[in-house]
Amino acid sequence: MLPVVPRLPRMRIHQRALQTLSKMQNCQGNGRPDKEYGNWRWKPEQCILPRFDARKFLELMRGKTLAFVGDSVARNQMESLVCLLWQVDVPQNRGNKRMHKWLFKSTSTTIARVWSSWLVHRSTEAVGIAPKGIDKVFLDVPDETFMDFLPRFDVIVLSSGHWFAKRSAYVLNGNVVGGQLWWPRQAGKMQMNNVDAFGVSVETCLTSVVTNPNFTGLAIVRTWSPDHYEGGAWNTGGSCTGKVKPLDKVVRNGFTDAMYGKQIEGFRKAVKNAGQHGSRLKLMDITEPFAFRADGHPGPYRSPDPNKKTQRGPDGKPPPQDCLHWCMPGPVDTWNEMLLEIIRREFERDRS
């Protein structure tokens, strides 16, 4: 399904809400001169996606808690939602080190965020051939960091994947079966690479969530968030400098396609594993539509430093930049329009 993205006036974000944004995603505050990236909206071909209605969202979530669980892209979406809701109700910060929480008193709605890089258990202790210090990712053990909180949540939005590009070792059934940017030569051939490991982790996490007897809510999987680095990766000189309009055609990214495919496969296996509880697991597919939004990243506008480099140098090399996360306000707000529709349909179905 390809996007049609007409220009529309931007939604106004309360100035105090902007103070809650991670500095790297506040593109206007960091001096980005163009603003069109905030005016484009995704329009599906076969349905209508309404603009975000903050009052409607809070009413649907009256007395409930919604939690974003995942990495910094999950934080990106959570901050977007808090800003959008701030248009109609100023929240109270009720968070702590373990869980960030915002309470909207008008409807007793709580928006929370729990950090979980891989969504499965992680340790730096030595395991088999993997020495102490390197991250061990236990692919068949869900992350207790958020599983302990799970019974408190009515809606949970799960997203992960990008940390599988980082240096780590993979543990399955107690054995070290592979790694990323790490593997001893004497160990022979790896049984599992990072793409396959991601797929196993998705199945583990989702199955554990929807089969947990103390969780009766709705679990939503937000699919892989595409990046738009060109000419290299985030740590090898990749760039999105000068991208100010949506792409006319997606440039395929083999790694994105592979990770997305494994995520969908893991999701389908989890639905099957869940049996009668599988209906509580929903997919929010943002990967293909947002592959068009190369213009929506902070790029070199990652800080308010007035002396930062924003253009390529005389040697043609791009300045340091972020082509993974999303500017706010910006394209990421559409994810919460999609989230609202999923919640609306699910809750209104339950009432009928």
From TrEMBL:
Question: Where is this protein primarily located?
Answer: Golgi
Q: Where does the record place the region Disordered?
A: 293-323
- Where is composition skewed (Basic and acidic residues) in this entry? 305-315
Q: Name one Pfam family in it.
A: PMR5N
Q: Where, per UniProt, does this protein localize?
A: Golgi apparatus membrane
Which intervals hold domain Trichome birefringence-like C-terminal?
Answer: 49-341
Is Ribosomal protein a UniProt keyword of this protein?
no
Entry membrane topology:
Single-pass type II membrane protein
Question: What superkingdom does the record give?
Answer: Eukaryota
Q: Which InterPro entries match?
A: TBL, TBL_C, TBL_N
Q: Please state every residue range assigned to the domain named Trichome birefringence-like N-terminal.
A: 19-47
Q: Does the keyword Membrane apply?
A: yes
Keywords of the record: Golgi apparatus, Membrane, Signal-anchor, Transferase, Transmembrane, Transmembrane helix
Task: List the GO molecular function terms.
Answer: xylan O-acetyltransferase activity
GO CC, sorted alphabetically, is: Golgi membrane
Q: Which family does it belong to?
A: Belongs to the PC-esterase family. TBL subfamily.
* Designated name of the protein: Trichome birefringence-like N-terminal domain-containing protein
**Source organism:** Panicum virgatum
